[in-house]
Amino acid sequence: MADFVLKGHICYSESKNELITRENAYVVCVGGKSKGVFTELPQQYAVLPLKDYSDCLIVPGMIDLHIHAPQYAFRGMCMDLELMDWLNRYTFPEEAKYMELEYAERAYAIFVNALKASATTRAVVFATRHRPATELLMKLMEESGLASYVGKVNMDREAAEVLVEESAAVSASETVQWIEAVKEKYTNTKPILTPRFIPCCSDTLMEHLRQIQMAYGLPVQSHLSESPGEIDFVHFLRPDNAFYGEAYNDYDLFGKNEDNQTDVKTVMAHCVWSTDEEIDLMRKNGVFVAHCPASNMNLSSGIAPIRKYLDLGMNIGLGTDVAGGHSDSIFRAITDAIQVSKMYWRYVDQTMKPITFPEAFYMATLGGGAFFGAVGSFAEGYAFDAVVLDDTALVHPQELSVSERLERAVYLGLDTHGIRAKYVNGEKIIF
Predict the structure, then answer these.
(1) How do residues 41-56 score in pLDDT, each as one tens digit?
(2) What angle do CA 150, 281, 148 make, to 5 degrees?
(3) Residue 156 has pLDDT above 80, yes or no
(4) Which residue, 160, 282, 321, 385, could crosslink 325 as a Cys pair with Cβ 3.0–4.6 Å?
(5) What whole-number distance in Å separates Cα of residue 364 and Cα of residue 358?
(6) Are the beta carbons of 199 and 231 closer than 8 angstroms?
(7) Taking all residues of the chain, what is their mean pLDDT, rounded to a whole number?
(8) What is the mean pLDDT of residues 116-123?
(9) Max Cα separation, the chain?
(10) Could you give the percent of the chain with pLDDT greater than 70?
(11) Which residues lie across from 153 on neighbouring strands?
C-alpha cells in the first residue's frame, strides 16, 4: 500500500451543513488513511510521491447504501408498475435465473465492471438467495478493488416457488454455510445479513436470523415502509406490531435494542411512509436510512421525508436501488434527492424546507460512509477513498468557484465521462 499526496481542488464534508472546498490544495494518504487536507504541504510529507491533478476536482468516493446486483441486468426497463406487482412480475423471475452459475457470472461481471467505472467506492449490495452465486459476486467485488457488504438474500415465503427457499431451516443453514465460506476470505468484501423484507420472511426465519446475527455479529440490511401496499401486507402478516419497523426490532435486527442489550449495525432502504413511532425508534436505535429517490419515483412509492430525518440527526445516506432506480450513479441520486425534497416541500409539507446541495453531498459521502466506519471524508484518520474529476469539458464563459464547479459536475453527470482516477483505501483502481 503506497503513501502519496494528491494535489487539486479538494471538496469534502465536515458535517451535514459544511461543504469544505480547498483550491490548489493537498490531501495526504499514509497507510490507506487520510492525514488531512493542507493548503501548504507539510515538510514531513514533502518526500512522498506527488500526483498533481492540476485543475481537477478531488472528492471522497461515493457511497451507495442500497443496490441490487442481480437487478442490474434490467435497469431502465419494467418501470410501469408499483412495488409489489413489479417484484412479482419482473424482479423475482429475473433473480431466479441466478440459480444458474453461468448466467450469474455473466450478469455479475457486467454489474461489477459498471460499479468499478462509476464514482462509487463502497456499496451495500443485495445478491439473491442462491449461495454459490452470492459467493461468486463477492469474489468479483473483491477483485474489483471496491469495498462492499454483500448479502445472500433470505426469503421463505410470498415469492415464486422457484425463488422461495424450501423452509426457514434450509434458509438458515444455507446462510451459515455462506458465512463460514466467506467470513475471513476477503479484505474489502464482507457479508451482511439480508432478510429481503418482512413479507418474504416468516417469523421462524426471522428467529433463525436473530440467532445467526448473535453468533457472527454481522450487520443487517433490508427494506422498510417503502409503499402503502407493502405496509398493509406487513400489518396483515404481523397484526400485533404497531408499525413495520417493530417487526425487525422484535428479532433484534433493528439497530441498538437497549431493552435486550444488543447493538446491530442496520441499514433500512426507503422509509418513505414511516410513522412518527417508527422514526423515533430508528433514531433511538441508530438505524441507517438509505434514501433511494429514483426508485421511489419510478415505482410510485412516494417521497421520503428526508428533511425531517436530517433535522432529527438520524443516520442517513443515499442508495441507487438498481433496478427500482434506473441508474447506478450516486451523482444522479444526489440531484434526485434535492429535487424530490422540493416536491415534498411544495406539495406535502411546506414546513419541510428542501435539502441543499451540501446536505445531499454529505449523504452521498460522510453520511452513508459512516455505515462503513471512518469513511466519506478527507479528515485525518478517514479511509482514503477518492475520486478525481476532470471538468474541463464542461466549458463556461466565466470563472466559477470550486463549489460551483462541483455542483455543476454533479448535476451534469460528470461521473459518466469525467473520472480521471479513483482510490479505495489508498489503492488506485481507475487510472
Answers:
(1) 999 999 999 999 989 9
(2) 15
(3) yes
(4) 321
(5) 10
(6) no
(7) 96
(8) 98
(9) 66
(10) 100
(11) 194
Do residues 186 and 172 touch, judged by C-beta distance below 8 A? no
List of long-range contacts for 409-413, beta carbons under 8 Å, 24+ apart: 409/57, 409/331, 410/331, 410/334, 410/335, 410/357, 410/361, 411/331, 411/335, 413/329, 413/331, 413/332
**C-beta of residue 318 within 8 angstroms of C-beta of residue 330:** yes
Question: What gap in Å lies between CA 12 and CA 60, rounded to an integer?
Answer: 6
Q: Which one, of 196, 195, 101, 191, lies nearest residue 150 by Cα? A: 191
Q: Identify the pLDDT of residue 36.
A: 98
The identity of residue 1, as a single letter, is M
Nearest to 140 by CA among 104, 103, 183: 104
Q: Output the CA–CA distances (angstroms, integers) from residue 374 to 120, 147, 259, in the order listed.
A: 16, 13, 28
Q: If you average pLDDT over residues 229-233, what whole number do you get?
A: 96
pLDDT reported for residue 1: 67
Q: Distance between CA atoms of 47 and 5, rounded to whole angstroms? A: 10
**Averaged pLDDT, 131-155:** 98
Amino acid 162 reads V
- Assigned C-alpha cell, 15: 458535517
pLDDT digits (tens, 9 = 90+) for 277-304: 999 999 999 999 999 999 999 999 999 9
